[in-house]
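Subject — a protein and its fold
Encoding — discrete vocabulary of local shapes:
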Amino acid sequence: MCSENSPDDSPREPFPDCPRCGAPVLLVVTRGPDSHACQPCGCPVASGITPGASKGDE
């Protein structure tokens, strides 16, 4: 079954840039409450500046 508005037809958002080196960030690895690293570049980032992060209850 095919639909005109399938999810594959929608434009995709580009990956956010690493705040340190500018490389595309595919994911952010959290190693502890204050230790995060962008992947695949490996740049360490603070919890307040992780790309695409949302603030939780603090």
Notes: Residues 1 and 24 are 35 Å apart (CA to CA).
